[in-house]
Amino acid sequence: MNYYSDHPEIGFYLNHPLMARIVELKEKGFADAKEYSASLSSAAANNAPASPLSFRRGVGGEAAPVDLGDAIENYRQILDITGDVAANIIAPNSESVDLEGPHLENGRMIYASKTFENIDATRKAGLWGVSMPRRYGGLNLPNVVFSMLSEVISAADAGFQNIWSLQSCIDTLYEFGSEEQRQKYIPRICAGETMSMDLTEPDAGSDLQRVMLKATYSEEEGCWLLNGVKRFITNGDSDIHLVLARSEEGTTDGRGLSMFIYDKRQGGVNVRHIEHKLGIHGSPTCELTYKNARAELCGSTRLGLIKYVMSLMNGARLGIAAQSVGLSQEAYNEGLAYARERAQFGQKIIGFPAVYDMLSRMKAKLDAGRSLLYQTAAYVDIYKALEDIERDRKLTPEEKQELKKYQRLADAFTPLAKGMNSEYANQNAYDAISIHGGSGFIMEYKCQRLYRDARIFSIYEGTTQLQVVAAIRYIINGTMLQNIKDLAGSLCCDGVEAPLAAPSASISASSSASLAALKARVEALIPVYEEALATVKALENQEAIDFLSRRLYDMTAEIVMSLLIIRDAAQAPDLFEKSAVVYVGMAEEDVLGKAAYIKNFQPASLANFRAE
Q1: CA distance 534 to 576
Q2: What predicted TM-score, i.e. pTM, was given to this entire model?
Q3: Active-site residue, selected from the candidate residues 9, 175, 461, 558
Q4: Number of Cβ atoms within 10 Å of the Cβ of 377
Q5: Could you report the per-residue pLDDT of 549-607, keeping only the tens digit for each?
């Protein structure tokens, strides 16, 4: 088994329309190729060990591709290594980790025993600090590839994916920390040390402006001292923490908050409690006490929440979207395998319409959600790469416009990707249990663990309701409507502009006609959506707009995903055409229903919904 190569749908997105630009920017015109001459592909040809770690530690120097094809081949090999580790180490360990979980000893969190095996395996495979530049020991991977790695690891064990994917916190330190801090901390993450982001407190969950953990600068110590309590901290006893704390005495809002780096080696932080959770048991959720913990300021004071946490959270939300897609894949796999084997009334249950309807919807949500994930990750990659280039030189006017364009797209799409995929993961896990029937309620079957693990996805790093809040301004102001029209305009049935070059894809005349018909059906939804949007805006009633926002959010995402899955099916009908047919039908059902609801909604009826 291999959790990457067994699912060609993942590798398809290595040929995303924006990938050539992403690689060009990320590799800065392949400037590293001279200094870091070895690549995964060239080393493999010389029978070198097949591990990214090898190319950091001296097999011909650290890896750097010489062109686009070399970069894509490197990505494939890294993904293949990860798929092997996920399938043959992390997945077999998942049940033991779920049963044992972490525990507390003398103020320290101790992972489940098999979690240590998972960490060791991913360290040996070189899968830490992978997004960081090579000069710090990283692999310089783009967000698209990091999201693929996250998806693959999550399919094996979503709880372990939390521990592993929190390495992405180092991106925030790289962006906003000093060069001295980069050189001090980034190589440690690349070597496999763990991270956490310590944001929430007992009285500050979604409302982070209420954070009160105190940061005081000590002239005597020559550093900042942190005092207070943090709660619900994922991987809270990690090696390196990014901590949101109140540095400005007398303030009570977000303008008094700053970001700090805490190194566990300094001491001063203990684990008071490990939460006993419904799911993701391998991922320790800790309550921490800070007592004069020595810390370093990251960036500037007063920008902790306003700037740095927003960046940190957007990265985390993309990570949860990838985590959700991975679990959705595994839920579909479990449901499909059981339906193929289970017989009732003299036939396999996969032949029952009620069952294959569920399975087809699960697959359609999985494929459409994955397409949205990698579209969003591609937008993030372009603007982040341009920001990184801007640290070395001034951008051209064209590059500045490109940065602004893709930053806006990333900001608009990220809450859609996180919210929709986390909801789909919950729905797919629920349906996997339904397909199993009574067996799905028995603890020996994996689908019950997937169901328990998925429930948190639509809660942490911002609930789905908060994703609606983040997305709605781009919906109300017409940005997403224009994005939808642009996407529809770029789409044709025998391919798209900047095609997804899938070598194995061949599209028949019948497929082309089928996809053309699907596209026409989605285009017919756009004026319906536009009318619903205008109706909501015309209400001029903020409470009513807030009440209807979730419906507009769902409609927006479903139309976007319909267009994306049609685009993908045009390039690889063998992989995506069935899902495109099913998903467009689902979108029609939902968009038309929600449009009718909005059309007939009266603000006065809100009184019927308020709890007494």
Answers
A1: 33
A2: 0.95
A3: 461
A4: 28
A5: 999 999 999 999 999 999 999 999 999 999 999 999 999 999 999 999 999 999 999 99
Q: What is the 3-state secondary structure (H, E, C) of 145-204?
A: HHHHHHHHHHHHCHHHHHHHHHHHHHHHHHHHCCHHHHHHHHHHHHCCCCEEEECCECCE
Q: Distance between CA 474 and CA 483 in Å, rounded?
A: 10
Mean pLDDT of 520-541: 97
Residues 6 or more apart whose Cβ sits within 8 Å of residue 436: 334, 335, 338, 342, 445, 447
Q: Does 394 score more than 90 pLDDT?
A: yes
Q: Residue 208 to residues 224, 231, 246, 253, 389: CA-CA distances in angstroms? A: 21, 12, 11, 9, 31
Distance CA 550, CA 463 (A): 12
CA distance 562 to 517: 12
d(CA 66, CA 29) in angstroms, rounded, equals 9
Q: Using DSSP bridges, classify how beta strands 240-246 and 195-198 pair: parallel, antiparallel or unpaired.
A: parallel
The per-residue pLDDT for range 13-41, each reduced to its tens digit, is 999 999 999 999 999 999 998 888 654 55
> What's the pLDDT tens digit per position in 193-245?
999 999 999 999 889 999 999 999 999 999 999 999 999 999 999 999 999 99
**Torsion angle (degrees, nearest 10) of CA 542, 546, 548, 550:** 160
Bridge partners, 345 (sequence order) = none
**44 CB neighbour count, 10 Å cutoff:** 15
Domains of the chain by start residue, with CATH:
8-190 (1.10.540.10), 195-307 (2.40.110.10), 463-612 (1.20.120.470)
pLDDT at 496: 41
* HSE-up of residue 501 (Cα within 13 Å, Cβ side): 7
Among 117, 110, 130, CA closest to 91:
117
Find, among 327, 359, 422, 339, the residue nearest to 582 by Cα: 359
The answer to whether residue 334 is catalytic is: no
